[in-house]
Every structure is written in C-alpha cells, then in structure tokens.
Amino acid sequence: MLAAAAVCPCPPVLVPEVAEGAVAELDAVRDACAEALAALAAARPERLVVLAPVERDGSGQYPAGSVGGLHGFGVPAEFVLGRARFEETATEAGGEPPAAVRELPAPLTVGAWLLRSVSWRAAPVSGLGVDRALPTAKCLREGRRLAAGEERLALLVLGDGSACRTLKAPGYLDERAAHFDAAAARALAEADHAALGALDADLGGELLAAGRAPWQVLAGAAEDAGLSGRLLHDSAPYGVGYLVASWS
Asked: Residue 160 in contact with residue 240, Cβ under 8 Å?
C-alpha cells in the first residue's frame, strides 16, 4: 500500500560539490526536495524504494548498501544507499556494511545523497532503476507490483522533466516541452495518477524527459492509495524542467 511519495529531480548539479560556484542557483530546488523528504519520513513508512531513470542496462534492483560516486563530475566522495541505517547496524554488530552488489548509476547516486539528511531507521531502503524508455503499460504494472500488500510503502521518485525548454537546453528548444512539463506539474500537484499515467511516452522521449517513466511507475502505485498532492517547486534552470512534489 502506497503511504506517501516524494518527487524530486536528480541532476548531479543538485549536489553542491558538483555545482561549485553555481551552487546557489539550485538552492530553491534543494529546499523543496528537503521539504518533500521530510513529509515522506513523517508518513512513517515500513519500506522505502528509490525510483530513478536509467539506461536499459542499469535497470533493476539495487539493495541497501549499494555505493555510487560522481567522480565523472569532479566529486571524489561516494554515497551509500541507506547509509544511516547501515552505519547504525555496523556499529551495533561491530562489523562493516554489507558489500554492494551493483554500483549505483548517477540518478540513484543523487538519490542516496538526498537521503543523507533524513533518518530511515524504521524503513528498509532499496533502489530501483527504471528504464527511461519503459512503455507506459509496463511502468504502471511495476507500480502496482510495488504497492501490492498491506506494508506501508514510501517512494522517492527521481527524474527531470523535459530538457528542451530553451535554446541552450541539452535538447535545444522545442515548443512542446513547456506544455508537457505543465501537464506533469498539474498531475503531480493534484496527485492525479490517471493524468500522470496518460503522459505521452513517445513525446516524453523526444523531449528527453527522463522523469516520465518513474512518474508513471508512481502512477501505477498510487491507483488505489487515495493520496493528496502538493507541488513544491516548478522551474526550468538550464532549460530542463525541475519538478518537486509531495504526495501523502
């Protein structure tokens, strides 16, 4: 049963060490993410799954303790999924955290960084890489699978909107991009799982909207949850749509 969800973008530049001199430009996004994560923790979930868009070869499960780095972006630090929980376990047992099975891809690494400021002692944490090209029907089916059962589930749903909002955007300017992001923003603001599931996957791919697939996994998970939504942030710095929302 889905109890709560937080939706956040996941560009590596969200990590201050990556942003360096431009760190202040995304302060409002970071603040909104912190608010969404606080609401997620307040829901007292029994399990937390971090969803993030990946290329096909990075899809699948990532257990707690998986490690990722942002070395390609000039940051030597590594981040551990579910770090606080495993530090506590290691201290109690006098041992080390279990070895990671797979290295976290960059979006999940950003998720691990976001979670560092929140205590998840009561909720086991895992990651799920979602193929950014996954068809809508399969996204919805995956969401329903995650939410099956009576366990209180929380989702941290990572992913950016379109990357075609300006001439200098990664995908150049596409006039359809603003409309696509606006539709996603409305659906997230209203916790409208049907509208979120109705986003055009092909158009999302053309607009480089990496969040489309994870958002539609959320849509499947939320079908019977009866959650309400709040849109906490909506902007397009660098020509990329960044949306932050809280569902509870």
From this structure: yes
Q: Which residues pair with 47 in a beta bridge?
A: 153
**Order of strands across the sheet that contains 60-62:** 60-62, 125-131, 47-54, 153-158, 2-8, 242-247, 229-235
Residues 157, 218: Cα–Cα separation, whole Å: 7
Residue 109, SS3 per DSSP: helix
Q: Which amino acid is at 59?
A: S
Quick: pLDDT tens for 160-197: 999 999 999 999 999 999 999 999 999 999 999 999 99
Q: Can you say whether residue 210 is alpha, beta or left, with left for phi > 0 and alpha for psi between -120 and 50 degrees?
A: alpha
Residue type, 107: P
In CATH, the number for domain 2-247 is 3.40.830.10
How far apart, in whole angstroms, are the C-alpha atoms of residue 159 and residue 11? 8
Mark 65-86 as b/e (b = at least 16 C-beta within 10 Å). bbbbebeebebeebbbbbbbbb
Q: Give the type of residue at 31.
A: D
Give 28-57 pLDDT, tens digit per residue: 999 999 999 999 999 999 999 999 999 999
Q: Where do the structural domains in the chain lie, given as residue ranges?
A: 2-247
Sign, CA dihedral 16-18-20-26, equals negative
